[in-house]
Amino acid sequence: MTDISCFVPHVQKHVEVILTKRYIGLSHEGLVIKNPQPSCPSFEKNANCDRFTVVVPYAGTSVEFIVMFQATQPECPPDFLFSDLKFFVPIDELESLHNWDVQETDGLFKVVKEIMYYYKKKNMEDLEKYTELNYEYLSLFQIRNFSEDDIEVYVPSKAKTPITMLVRLHVEFCDVLPDVTQRSGYESALLLLIFSDRDNEKCSQRLYLSEEIKNALGLNGNFEFPGHMREFQLNRYIVAVEDKLRCQVDLVASRYESRKTYFAKFLSHFYNCVVEYDIFYFHNMVLLLEVEDFNFLLEINLPENFPTGVPDLIFRSIYHTCSGVPTSVVVDSYPYCSSWSLEKVFNETVKSIEAYAIMLKEDSEPYF
């Protein structure tokens, strides 16, 4: 992380806001400040840093420009130098820069947002040179609730560099794992389309999700996209990707609710016997139980595909040891049917627990 103490005070405030607000546009990656430098010679009294480079993630790539303040003139607005020399910023149209107020510490952040608006506009205009891709781009606005805010287009000046489109998918994740989505920094899914030869003949795709959402959906491996994009018009392809992702969300949300409901029955039935349980994912629970004066620990592990998959019941007691170390007995074969209601699954499981506990007690009787 950039050490902002190297900046002069009035610049430091702007840098702090940039690093706090962080996000502009669609990317899951935040703004980056790098290469702080002073504009004055080192022998000057106010030779602290007053210029730096801002890196803004955009359409699967990034935009860099140098921001130049004046260390000795806090009231002066900054100047900008862009790495893309073909990008012209209409300075007179940058309202935040034209109305620069030294007292507004978020002034630079507002200017950067306006600059990226014009950068995006410039790339959309450049896309018009490519008839097929522009047609595909325009087709996206046939999707319900789709707007310009849902896409970023990058058309590099170098002819052999791929054109990219970053699209926000309209898929909700709040029902997947509520606690996870509340703790995640973002919830939107992004689809990056890379057109390697500047037409829609050759296109590769990449799906961006937060690590927590990816783990929750079981998508740690590659996401299987719905066929080759050439088989679809772009708007239909986007909808197909959204539908496939929603199916995974619905499946995971259903399993999550089943695990939560199942554990709620154990919490209600064995309310004073709970040692611990997974309050976020509802994957496992530990109970301290007693059957006929025999005490034992029971760990319940629910598989990811519960209620289709059978939960593991792990029994432990101080009377079953190996070289003085308590051993575990895993029971994964007992009356169970995925088509049963959760109520029946619970009742049958409790019966199995009680039956096996008696067998475990009888097996431990020589130790009493």
Which of globular, elongated, flat, extended, rod-shaped describes the shape?
Answer: elongated
Elements, N to C (H/E): HEEEEHHHEEHEEHHEEEEEH
Mean pLDDT reading: 87
By secondary-structure content and strand pairing, the structural class works out as alpha+beta
Rounded Rg:
29 Å
Strand content: 15-25%
**Quaternary status of these chains?**
single chain
Helix content: 25-40%
Low-confidence stretches: none
Q: Got a strand count?
A: 13
Could you give the distance between the termini?
61 Å
- The count of helical stretches stands at 8
**Main sheet strand line-up:** 9-10-11-12-13
State the major sheet.
Answer: 5 strands, antiparallel
Model description:
The chain has 368 residues and is α+β, with helices and mostly antiparallel strands. It is 32% helix and 24% strand. It has helices at 9-21, 95-98, 107-127, 131-139, 178-183, 211-217, 234-269, 342-364, and strands spanning 32-37, 51-58, 61-68, 79-82, 151-154, 163-169, 189-195, 203-208, 274-277, 284-291, 294-301, 312-322, 325-331. The longest helix is centred in the C-terminal third of the chain and has 36 residues, at 234-269. The N and C termini lie far apart (61 Å).
Short description:
The chain has 368 residues and is α+β, with helices and mostly antiparallel strands. Helices cover 32% and strands 24% of the residues. β2 and β3 form a beta hairpin.
